[in-house]
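Annex B. Sample input.
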Amino acid sequence: MLGCGSWAGSHHWWIILCGYGMEGRPRLILTLGAYYKEYDMRYEPEKWKSAYQDDGFVIVQDLLDHSTLSALRDGMDKISGDPRDLPPHLKEKIFLERDHVKNNPQWYTGSLTPEKCGNSVRQIADLALFDPVFAGLICYPPLLDVLEVLAEE
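Annex B, continued. Sample output.
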């Protein structure tokens, strides 16, 4: 599985490489790096394989170049700025934090109310439909390099 986004407007970017942990359950993890220039990412295939086998995920530092990261941030800002401004066919792809809190009061009673969440976006389905920059990430050469290494297993 591949995804990207920012969490509660914090602009902590991540890509998810999903595998299965020891318990057979999917494992998801974060972190996209800072800046990467002309495929200048450290190529560490053995480290990636080992991490993926041991933990079910891999963190690749400096995966994105500056312009790609900037374009992803801009795209995410357009989506999360005010989801009410999105066209109806995209608005239905957004799951707001307030709806999650409202649906799960057992986790938030006394600490967080739906009203305190404002328009924070919790989840976005079909991210590639929102902007071509997200669709382009699917074929991003450095990411494909990592996935190719992991697929060899």
